[in-house]
């Protein structure tokens, strides 16, 4: 657990030691999501160079998400028993290594290995970040989480636009130039490592850590409410991971968008997510967090329905906007709600255990879409299943709220 939660009295989100570290962590997450989101944005180019079929491409993205999920519980548990700083710095180093390997990839196996490292680094970073923010903030926790999620959406939007530049390079200059897109991310992540090392007041700690899976599982999953929330979160994770992974391919192939319009559509998904996450965290801190999460998943399903019913670029982009307004409001509010349910001294590991499961199961959403597209020739058909998943998640949360668990 963090040994230093120095903060200004009013829990400032932007000032003082807590504000400085919070903003640095947000920038780090922005860079992480830029690097990770470049994969789906550049997937058409990567697939051409490495001769990937849709099912192989889907499995590669699943590997990233699967290793991301596996790293969640150890990352949270280690940060509880060592220090947040120790885990954060080593996770960032793993990310830099994974991205560097990705720029040298020449085969499918190398691509999978780079994706695994990328997943481990991102997963190890996530829970210590949330736990450290939880150390700093209580009344403004939802807003603090919202800033982190919004920074990630911004990073994904940057990746989408960078992917569009790379696709344009292929069309105009005969590229591909997908490897070069990762170089700025690597450089800026190295800067984050240096600043976190310099600014954080926590020490580095190294000792033997017991994962204690039995007691963690018993403590977390004996609560019926948490078990039901986990199921709803799994439906959200399947949808968000699958949709963000294959939206560019869907727009290019099934909607016939140009590379420029595809990059705009993909960037819209994340740009709209910035105000959505901030607003969701703000409303959740002041009103009912459960109502916000129920509405978020339902609105997201409406957005996907619009996306699939219409082929006009205007209406397709509108569907993406509605989807993003809904679903991206979900994570900061639900995570803030969950952090209130866990004991303070084990919050990192407890949330990490939950996130390992919902992200791990959700990682197969990309494989599901890839398989449906490969065997039925339709990404739109696969997206119908995502609509069902969002509606089921919203219904479960509605039941929890009505039954007063």
Describe this structure in words.
The structure is a single chain. The protein has one domain: Growth Hormone, Chain: A. Helices cover 81% and strands 0% of the residues. It contains 17 helices and no strands. Helix 4 packs antiparallel against helix 7 (183-199), helix 6 runs antiparallel to helix 10 (259-271) and helix 9 crosses helix 16. The longest helix is centred in the first third of the chain and has 35 residues, at 16-50. It starts with 15 loop residues before the first helix and ends with a helix.
Task: Based on the model shown, name its key terms.
single chain; 405 residues; 81% helix; disordered N terminus
The computed structural class is mainly alpha
Order of helices and strands: HHHHHHHHHHHHHHHHH
Let me know the average pLDDT: 83
Low-confidence stretches: 1-8, 170-174
Give the DSSP E fraction (strand runs of 2 or more residues).
under 5%
User: In the residues, how many domains can be counted?
Assistant: 1
Radius of gyration: 20 Å
Instruction: Please name the CATH topology.
Output: Growth Hormone, Chain: A
Number of helices: 17
- What is the annotated CATH architecture? Up-down Bundle
Q: How would you classify the quaternary structure?
A: single chain
Helix content bin: over 70%
**The CATH homology group name:** MFS general substrate transporter like domains
Number of strands: 0
Distance between the termini: 29 Å
What does the overall shape look like?
globular
Major beta-sheet overview: none
The CATH first-level class comes to Mainly Alpha
């Amino acid at each position: 657990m963090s040994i230093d939660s120095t903060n200004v009295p009013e829990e400032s989100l932007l000032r003082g030691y807590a504000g400085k570290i919070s903003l640095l962590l947000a920038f780090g997450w922005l860079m992480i999501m830029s690097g990770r989101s470049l994969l789906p944005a550049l997937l058409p180019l990567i697939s051409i160079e490495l001769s990937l079929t849709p099912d192989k491409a889907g499995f590669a993205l699943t590997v990233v998400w699967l290793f991301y999920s596996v790293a969640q519980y150890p990352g949270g548990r280690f940060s509880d028993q060592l220090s947040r700083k120790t885990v954060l710095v080593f996770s960032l180093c793993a990310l830099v290594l994974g991205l560097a390997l990705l720029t040298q990839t020449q085969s499918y196996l190398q691509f999978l290995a780079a994706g695994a490292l990328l997943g481990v680094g991102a997963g190890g970073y996530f829970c210590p970040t949330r736990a450290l923010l939880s150390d700093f903030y209580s009344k403004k926790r939802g807003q603090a989480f919202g800033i982190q999620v919004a920074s990630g959406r911004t990073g994904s939007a940057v990746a989408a636009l960078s992917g569009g530049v790379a696709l344009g390079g292929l069309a105009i200059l005969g590229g591909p130039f997908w490897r070069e897109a990762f170089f700025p991310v690597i450089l800026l992540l190295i800067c984050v490592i240096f600043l976190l090392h310099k600014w954080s007041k926590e020490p580095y700690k190294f000792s033997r850590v017991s994962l204690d899976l039995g007691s963690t599982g018993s403590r977390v999953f004996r609560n019926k409410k948490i078990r039901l929330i986990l199921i709803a979160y799994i439906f959200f994770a399947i949808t968000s991971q699958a949709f963000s992974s294959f939206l560019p391919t869907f727009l290019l192939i099934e909607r016939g968008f140009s590379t420029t319009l595809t990059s705009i559509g993909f960037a819209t998904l994340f740009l709209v997510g910035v105000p959505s996450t901030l607003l969701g965290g703000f409303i959740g801190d002041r009103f009912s967090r459960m109502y916000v999460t129920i509405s978020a998943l339902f609105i997201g399903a409406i957005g996907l329905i619009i996306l699939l019913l219409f082929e006009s670029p205007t209406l397709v982009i509108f569907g993406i906007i509605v989807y993003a307004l809904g679903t991206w409001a979900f994570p900061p509010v639900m995570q803030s709600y969950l952090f209130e349910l866990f004991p303070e001294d084990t919050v990192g590991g407890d949330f990490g255990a939950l996130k390992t499961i919902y992200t791990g199961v959700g990682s197969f959403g990309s494989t599901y879409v890839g398989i449906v597209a490969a065997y039925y020739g339709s990404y739109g058909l696969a997206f119908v299943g995502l609509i069902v998943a969002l509606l089921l998640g919203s219904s479960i949360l509605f039941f929890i709220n009505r039954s007063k668990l």
